Structure formats: structure tokens, C-alpha cells
Amino acid sequence: MAGECTLQVHELDFELGFGCIVTGLAVSDLLNPVIVSQLRELWRDRGLIVFRGGRDDPDFQVDLSRCFGELQIHAVAEMLHPERTELFVAKGGGGALFRVNGVELSGYIPWHSDQVFTAQTNHGGILRVAHRPAVGGNTGFIDQIAAYDALPEELQSRIDGLDVVYRMQAGTTPNFKFLPREHIELIRPNPFQDGINKRIESGEYPPVVHPLVFTQPETGRKVLNLSPMFADRILGLEDRASEELLRRLAYHLTDERRCYDHSWQPGDMVLWDNWRMIHCARGIPDGLYREVHRTSIAGDYALGRVLAA
User: Fold this and answer.
1) By the number of CB atoms within 10 A of the CB, which of 36, 80, 172, 292 ranks highest?
2) Mean pLDDT of the chain
3) What CA–CA distance (Å, rounded) separates 21 from 30?
4) 279 phi, psi to nearest 5 deg
5) What CA–CA distance (Å, rounded) separates 31 from 60?
6) Is residue 208 classed exposed, middle or buried when 0-12, 13-18 and 19+ CB atoms within 10 A define those classes?
7) pLDDT of residue 2
């Protein structure tokens, strides 16, 4: 990193090529342009930052998020905080219930990029646990730069230039088609799924297209740009070839050996690059309660588009 770093930065996991931990960040640091510049460079280089040992209230979460860009309001209005629309609220306990590989889980969300079902995916977000359950609730992260580098060269060449169609489909489990490592059964639907279904059927979420591979402009590193959740097909391929290729890539991408699994400690906040990382919510036992608040950092990598009719 250019210049002397005044931040307290620690390695996240020596086995992984991404992520770091920043400790003791204070409100005054957010007003220091040198520190803000260092934070932005860390984010670009590492892709994920765990903030620990500092403030963790909603005001600090929003102010810290603004150090990395303008904030945007999440596209799913049903999930917004009733008092602070900058915050997207996800609750586990009493909502949708799944059986995942034989285990019943509430608050489970499989591997995905945020808002990939829109043409302009946000650049990132900061996640904070407002209510932590006694058991479970981890969040997984996978670096798509490392995943691309681990692909065989013939597969790298094959997928370069291909596009993936994403769509928000009515229901819940239809969005889980390309998750070959998980067997997912819906036991109880989300209580506001009917409202989302009506908006989908009215055409509010048209199909969109994103490239399967893109190059990170600042570094020249290539990204395997696949969000298993919401993926529909590869544009221009026959159905069978498209499904086989997407399943192969999703199986490779979701290899847990390249995953950072974050076990939340009191006061933690996590920032990640949504153009580079996929993440998942591991879920909690039914009957427990978990609530997380997340900001959405605006931006447009200018490679997504609405699919023409």
C-alpha cells in the first residue's frame, strides 16, 4: 500500500489471498482523508475488511460506509429499515425455513452477489449484526479472483466473453437452481413472498445480463463473475450446454476450501467488494432470532444491461 499506513491492520487468514482486519477505528478517523484513502486502497487490494474493536452503532455504520462511496437504497422495498432507508434488514427466525443438506435452517441465503438481478449491481456493503443468536449465524465469503485463477486454462479461455442471464423469479427455491453442493427444500415460505411475486409478475424485475468474466480495472486481475443464486442461463448457449457449464462453474466457485467463514463477535462489522466476492448467510436453528443491517455502496462497473426482449 502506498504511503505509511496509520491503520491497525491484521491478517484475516494466512491461507487465503484476500481480506484483512482493521481494529480500533474511531469516529475521528472517518474525517481524516489520509485514513479514508488508506481504507479505500485496502478494500480494493483485499476485497474484504473486518472492522473490530470500534463503534458498531447504525450511525457509525452509515458514516463508515460513505467513506467508500455514495449509498443507495436497496431494490427490495420490503427489506428496508423502517426508520433508516440506508439500511437493508435481514431477519432470521419466523421467516422462510429451509432444509439444507438435511438440516433445518431459518435465515439461510445461499451463495450470491447482492442485487445481481439488476443491471447495476452495487459496489459493496457493510454488514452489522444487530441481534446475534446464541448458535449459528455465520457469514461465508469467497473471492472470485482466486476462483478464476484456480480454473484450468482451457476453461478460462472457454468462458471469456460469455454472458449470464439473471432474473428474479417468483417463489423462493427457483432462485437456487445452480447450487450443486446444496440440496435445498423449502419448508416454510417468507411471509412477504407474495408481495415480491406480484412485483416480479408485473415486470418490475426484467431479466438482466452480466459478463461471466471481467477484469478489475485498477489491478488487471480477472474475476469469475458468477452469482449462483438468481443465475438463469448463459446467453447464446443451448439449454443443456448452458446448464452443464453453469453447474460446473458453480461447483468450482463454491469450494469451501477457498471460503472465509466469519464467526461474528460483538462489535464486528464487515465490508466486502460485491463486484469481486460472493457471500452466503449460513442460517440459524428455527426458533432463534438473528437480525442484520447492511448498507449498499453505490457504483456501476458498467458491464450489466437489461436483456432486450
Assistant:
1) 292
2) 92
3) 17
4) -145, 170
5) 12
6) buried
7) 43
User: What is the separation of C-alpha 196 from the centre of its chain, rounded to a whole number of angstroms?
Assistant: 20
Q: CA nearest 275: which of 219, 235, 206, 226?
A: 226
Rounded Cα–Cα distance for residues 116 and 122 (Å): 9
User: Exposure of 41 by Cβ count < 10 A (0-12 exposed, 13-18 middle, 19+ buried)?
Assistant: middle
What does the block give as the cell for 142? Answer: 469467497
Length of the chain: 309
Distance CA 264, CA 266 (A): 7
Q: Give the number of other Cβ atoms within 10 Å of residue 157's Cβ.
A: 10
Alpha-carbon span 41 to 61, nearest angstrom:
19
Q: Rounded to whole angstroms, what are the CA distances from 101 to 15, 105, 181, 253?
A: 27, 10, 9, 18
Measured from the Cβ of residue 89, the count of other Cβ atoms closer than 10 Å reads 16
CB 254, CB 181: distance < 8 Å:
yes
Q: Which amino acid is at 216?
A: Q
Q: Which residue has the cell 487468514?
A: 13
Band of pLDDT at residue 4, cut at 50, 70 and 90 = low
**Per-residue pLDDT tens for 140-177?**
999 999 999 999 999 999 999 999 999 988 887 888 99
User: How confident is the model over 76-112, as pLDDT tens digits?
Assistant: 777 777 777 889 888 777 788 999 999 999 989 999 9
State the Cα–Cα distance between residues 108 and 64, nearest whole angstrom. 27
Residues 212-229 as b/e (b if ≥16 CB within 10 A, e otherwise) read bbbebeeeeebbbbbbbb
How much is the pTM? 0.93
Whether 100 and 182 have beta carbons less than 8 Å apart is answered as yes
